[in-house]
Amino acid sequence: MRRRSISAATTLAVVFSSAALAVGSAGQAAADSAKILPVKSVGDLVVDGAHRRVYVSDPASGKIVVTDYSGAVQATVTGLPGVTGLALSADSAQVYAAVKDSDRIVSVETRTYTRTADYALAGADAPADLEVVDGRIWFGYGSDLGSLDLSGAEPVVRLDQEAGAGFWTGPLHLAADPAVPGVLVAGAAGTLAVYDVTADGAVPRVKGSMDTAVKQLDLTPDGTQVITSWDGSGSGYGLPAYSTTDLTEVASYPIAAYPNAVAVGPDGSIAGGSFSWYDPDVHIHRPGDPRPVREYEFPNTGDSSGGDTLVDGALAWAPDASRVFAVSVNSHGTYTLRALTDPTKELPTLTVSAPAKAERAKKLTVTGKLTSRTRIPAGTALQVTRTDLDSPNGKALPAVTTKADGTFSFTDTPPAGGKVTYKVSFAGDATHAAASGSDAVEVSRKATTLTVNNNGKLYAYGKDVTFTAHLGTTYKNRTVSIYADPFGSDKPKKLLKTAKVNSSGNLSATVDMTRDTTVTAVFAGDARYAPKTVKSTAYAKAKISTTVAKHYKTGKIGNTTYYYFRKSTDPVFTTTMNYYEGRKQRFQLQVYHQGAWYDSGTEYFALATNGKSVVSLDAPGESGIRARMRSSYINGSSGDSVNSTTHGSWKYMTFTS
């Protein structure tokens, strides 16, 4: 068959999903895809291989969502309250849907996604699961079986197709396969039956009670086995296979976690699903082989401790067996359609090991191993690619072949230094998926010289200073970047220039020295010379000026200009300084006595946001006194460290009567 029905219990959001899990040994193929579905629940899914479409029913929203194979939504069919089971017609022209809340089956045309027919099922309460057998639509309703025959001029609905009432103890799950005409399988809690379908109805071939609940089931393409889920009763979890002749168990496919889905592919491969937070979610088996050939583990897209989980029964094969489609749900109730590619192929492991370090232009050896569950033949060709600074897009090297144990080795002489990555790829074959591995080696490079001038120099505030970086010998790269990083947290590091150095190896950039500044020159390196970074820190004075007020004149005493004040006048000094948050000026006062200047005191005064600080001195009250003052910025003591210590000029004053 090409789809599996899903328990109505899954319409409730599964709230147990969680943190991402480590990918299992089989891993995931690079071509796997995942797209969020715009649904609130999932009832069933069916794959239309002729049009490469996936149909997903959403009972809670009463709609069917149609996607392409990548999960991109192509159409939405609405107005289907409680829609659950889906089935595809043999010619892929119609998708049939069981609409539980209105007791009917509707038909959707697969080219236009429009509803083409509506069939009332009078007396059939809540039809859920659907199967198409020889053109007739079979449906389970409650614990009974019905059919819808569309072959005549008018549709014919037949109910109570199960002879022997009371055999079923729960809702029916149905299974069929287009490759097996005339056969229908049904299962419910603890019961299983195989029917031969004729024009007169469904004739039981074999019926029996099981040791475990049948949660999902499917029929093999040769019609000899029915595969069911196993709920953990008795010997453990798994997917037991029963003979369609006498229901004896003929095979079993163990699963570590809770089985909740099963789908058989067109080639007989079995996809088993399990409700699992911490183990693989989808398990692919070759017919008769209890060991999975491939396993897929869903990542965590929610916020719990385990991974996303598989929705009950949400597995379906593409008719060409190229993909298995699965629907997962996370802890937020978000549903995702996942296309799992190459499911029947083993996923090999390809390891590559290169030396941690190597010398440029010297031969090195790379080793590795290609392993898989079934041995890959000796002599298998592997493609080798080297990626380095000279070949950033990769350069193909001669192919290497495997030995009998899967190991391989090759030598190479790296022409470029720096990080060199060797990637080895296996293209895959009929039974193995593609695989690749890589490893990187740090290849030595020569050291070049790089300098930048002006380190330690002190400049006046606002001076334009030219910084010159000098680059020594390199291979191909002659580009240098120059950055300026002014002191202070309010101004970020800034790129001044990136360019090739001139013929003398120089590149210059100008800095407006309003603060102490670290200038950095960076050479990124090339294939033969290592990267290098050098720094130069130059210093800038603060900008300081002071004006004097309330004097009555100026005049010279000797060669020095003095401001004259009356002995009862308070001198006022306004200092202006380049502002920085929290900055203070240091006010220093000295008095002249017997031919020498003596400190009278110092005090720090905060600057306003306009950079000004106004200080008034008390009048001395007597004449003949000579004094001087100056304002200074003291690195560290003035509240910050973005400029170098700077003293303003002395202002001289004398007091008269």
UniProtKB/TrEMBL annotation:
InterPro entries linked: Quino_amine_DH_bsu, WD40/YVTN_repeat-like_dom_sf
Keyword Cell division: no
Record's keyword terms, sorted: Signal
Keyword Signal: yes
Signal peptide bounds: 1-22
SUPFAM superfamilies cross-referenced by the UniProt entry: YVTN repeat-like/Quinoprotein amine dehydrogenase (SSF50969)
Name of this chain's protein: Ig-like domain repeat protein
Organism encoding this protein: Streptomyces bullii
